[in-house]
């Protein structure tokens, strides 16, 4: 499969990518910045390329914005970026359920991904995202 452009922000933690989706202004980049501050690596901000490789979905930086992240009220910042297999999809939404049994399964570019909806205004959103990856994310290999 060829690469497809996908509207999302993406970071990688220990070689596993979190695809962050949500409406404009929901805090996708803010979550990415908080995760980067905690050791994550940027894949792409406000748009990535998705590609199937060996039955896994990979997120790659979009060539038009590779290494760039837009920091609201600050401007465009440059930072290293890379690619990684997507292990988890996080949707930011104020209607996120308080209790969940586990992740739902969401298709992106023909690949099933575990998916969770998180409330975007949490002061510990980055910690929740890391825990979600740890508990529900796809393994590094397989």
TrEMBL record:
Top-level taxonomic group: Bacteria
Domain HPr kinase/phosphorylase C-terminal span(s) in chain numbering: 4-76
Annotated GO biological process: regulation of carbohydrate metabolic process
A Pfam family matched in the record: Hpr_kinase_C
GO MF, one example: ATP binding
SUPFAM superfamilies the record matches: PEP carboxykinase-like (SSF53795)
Protein name listed in UniProt: HPr kinase/phosphorylase C-terminal domain-containing protein
Annotated organism of origin: Croceicoccus pelagius
